[in-house]
Design brief:
Elements (H helix, E strand, L loop, with lengths): L19 H5 L1 H13 L3 H7 L9 H29 L17
Length: 103
């Protein structure tokens, strides 16, 4: 099971494949998606989910928020079933080329 509150990088991965970082941050991504669906303010999400201070580090917090939200959406659309099914990233096939059952 992934950690509930891992440290976050300044930017989420942009790799076309699931990464170890994605696996470790599965819960972070779910929390980002929940916050996005609720229309939460980015500063609150940065503070609560990413544990970054948007008052002291506004640019860093905003970039981290944007990149992690985008990655969460991409993983949810293209690679999350694989992440849950296999519990590890597969570096052999890009996210955009993976078949997801039911799609």
């Amino acid at each position: 099971m992934p950690p509930l509150d891992p440290d976050v990088a300044n930017l989420a991965p942009s790799d076309p494949v699931l990464t170890v970082y994605d696996k470790v941050h599965a819960v972070t991504y779910m929390r980002m998606l929940d916050a996005d669906a609720e229309g939460a303010d980015w500063r609150e999400v940065a503070r609560v989910v990413l544990r970054l201070d948007p008052e002291r580090e506004s640019d860093r917090a905003r970039r981290a928020f944007e990149s992690h939200r985008a990655r969460a959406k991409r993983v949810a659309r293209q690679g999350y079933r694989n992440l849950l099914r296999h519990g590890r990233p597969r570096a052999t096939r890009p996210l955009s080329k993976r078949r997801v059952s039911g799609s």
